[in-house]
Amino acid sequence: MGYVYILTNKPRGTLYVGVTSELIGRVWQHKQKLVDGFSKKYNLSILVYYEVCDDIEQAIAREKQLKNWHREWKIKLIEEFNPAWKDLFNEINQ
């Protein structure tokens, strides 16, 4: 199983598209600022979107696709899935 996810710092803020095989643990790492790089630099720790894929290869392919999308396409995807831009971490961490 694999996951593609999008983090932000605020509604319509900076977006980060990532991929992982363990969504809860990976988002927790982002929230604790344990992941060096873009997400840490821009304080991206709000999970606003995720997709579940059958395997990690499918997730990686989807991540590459989303990274090539225009910003407005990503925003539309998020707002269809999560119109309030709420942090979905608590929902997946139950």
TrEMBL record:
InterPro entries: GIY-YIG_endonuc, GIY-YIG_endonuc_sf, UPF0213_domain. Pfam families: GIY-YIG. Residues 1-76 form the GIY-YIG domain. Belongs to the UPF0213 family. PANTHER family: BSL5627 PROTEIN (PTHR34477:SF5), UPF0213 PROTEIN YHBQ (PTHR34477). This is GIY-YIG domain-containing protein. The lineage of its organism: Bacteria, Candidatus Doudnaibacteriota.
